[in-house]
Design goal:
Elements (H helix, E strand, L loop, with lengths): L2 H32 L7 H7 L4 H14 L7 H9 L5 E6 L5 H7 L6 H8 L1 E5 L7 H14 L5 E5 L2 E2 L8 E2 L4 E2 H10 L3 E5 H6 L12 E2 L1 H5 L4 E3 L6 H14 L12 H4 L3 H4 L3 H5 L10 H4 L18 H4 L8 H4 L11 H4 L17 H8 L3 H18 L19
Helix pairs in contact: 3-4, 4-11
Length: 406
Amino acid sequence: MGKKAEEDIRKNADGYYRQLMKQCKVHLEEQDKTLPPARTDFQETLREGGVTRRSFLKWTGAMTAALMLPPMFKPLVAQAAEQFSRIPVVWLHLAECTGCSEAFLRTSYPNVDDILLDTISLEYHETLMAAAGYQAEACLEKALKDFSGKFVCVVEGAIPMGLDGRYLTLGPKGKTGLEVAKEVTSKAAMTLCIGSCSSFGNVQAAKPNPTDAKGVGDALGISTVNIAGCPPSPQNFVGTVLHYILFGALPALDGHGRPVWAYGKRIHDYCERRPHYDAGEYVEEWGDEGAKKGWCLYKKGCKGPYTYSNCAKVRFNDGMSWPIMGGHGCMGCTEPAFWDTMAPLEEPIDEKPIGGYSANARADMLGMALTGAAVVGVAAHAAITAGINHGQPRKKDDNEPHEGHE
């Protein structure tokens, strides 16, 4: 490509983003006039949480980059963050363990993401609200009436479809989870699924699935934004809502309804143990020398090569660690039906041939010769990239490309 062609591409990109910025500013101004007033002063909340202006600006830059936007959008991302608490949210709990809510609430050293979640305008959340019974029901009805077409519906948990939904009944009127979900999502501006239960059914939908549990989109036949994980990262939720505030539209989604900015790369691509994979250095048994040295966990069942998520980047427990860093392989929890397709969780998937070899045979080949291990590892990794059916590693007859990861 010539120099002039490169300059033309840069000019076109710059022009595109500047036009997008103008549209974004207009949208934020219009939104500012229609959203309910903020219940708290955002800057004061940051100060009370111990977040300095420097830390907030650093977070703004990181979130702008995470959303795949150029640095010129940082002021707009900061402005969107200030409007975060003005978006009405109705949070439903269906067939789940409340682990996603717990993950969002548990923090020792709050950062900007945590503070934004603390200030969120929760109109209804069964676990956190003081009201119960008919009072709680009245809160939900009022929210649906006052904010119809304006609120974000967040769903935590799968929907049991068996017995016309009667495996799950809620509230003093005994409505089924299916009924409640239909009513609330039909009046929402956006339906956002938190966790793999509401996204794909998760453990409730695992075989033999006696309650016929399904993810929300599947059960209701609607489009949802799926923040997958068991539990997911709070940052993935915050970033998706920020994108909605910025543009009044959803971020780009992959073939499973997950935001590409958060789920566009494999766990394997950013794993700190990846160099050991390329070098053919594996943990063979728990507690062996390889485990002590932090070698690759693929032979102990790590599903990182088949799993799409940004866990290695955002981590958990105040950003301190994540499962692979802690010494256990990835379980593939952001992928559909992972309890079935990724099982057994502590053994490699050996049924999917890659490059003409089974998964175990390929792993063994990587360690045959020290001098050739790195080269063979890279070649095998390329084979995974070309040959895996993303999200369903054990499905043998599906050759259709996975949307969002080409």
